[in-house]
């Protein structure tokens, strides 16, 4: 989804409104302000896309993730069934135990994230650790590839 044309359209609307100003200095200040808002508008549109993905995720069996390709978001459907059991070695079973001490605030955030995804806290942590061990983002040319979750 390319957002550049949406941002440009909003900035043109702001510039058209600025042109209604009675004097030239006010019109110029409004035009500059509309240009300066470009980054903020981009972030706000990303927030809208992220909220929409979260709302859709609540209504479908998998989840919708927002991934960035450059500055443009991509909505990607992820089937939770395919990630239900992380890629473990054939002789690995979910029986190993560790004691992990976390700050209370981090534990609460993990519980909320697990609840939002409809899985247990343990399952969420196992998946997060497995994703962390997957291939790392690589840099090729001017494009950064990898994974981001919002």
Explain briefly what this protein structure is.
The chain is built from 6 helices and 4 strands. By secondary structure, the protein is α+β, with helices and mostly antiparallel strands.
Q: Can you walk through the features of this model?
A:
With 150 residues, this protein is of the alpha+beta class. The protein folds into 2 domains: 1-78, no CATH class; 85-137 and 145-150. The protein has helices at residues 4-18, 24-36, 38-59, 80-83, 104-117, 121-133, and strands at 63-69, 72-78, 139-140, 143-144. A two-stranded antiparallel sheet has the order 1-2. Strands 3-4 form a two-stranded antiparallel ribbon. Strand 3 and strand 4 form a beta hairpin. Helix 1 (4-18) runs antiparallel to helix 2 and helix 5 packs across helix 6 (121-133).
- Please state how the strands of the largest beta sheet are arranged side by side: 1-2
Order of helices and strands: HHHEEHHHEE
Q: How many domains?
A: 2
Main β-sheet, in a few words? Answer: 2 strands, antiparallel
Helix percentage = 40-55%
Number of strands: 4
Write the layout of secondary structure elements.
Blueprint: H1 4-18, H2 24-36, H3 38-59, E1 63-69, E2 72-78, H4 80-83, H5 104-117, H6 121-133, E3 139-140, E4 143-144
Antiparallel strand pairs: 1-2, 3-4
Helix pairs in contact: 1-2, 5-6
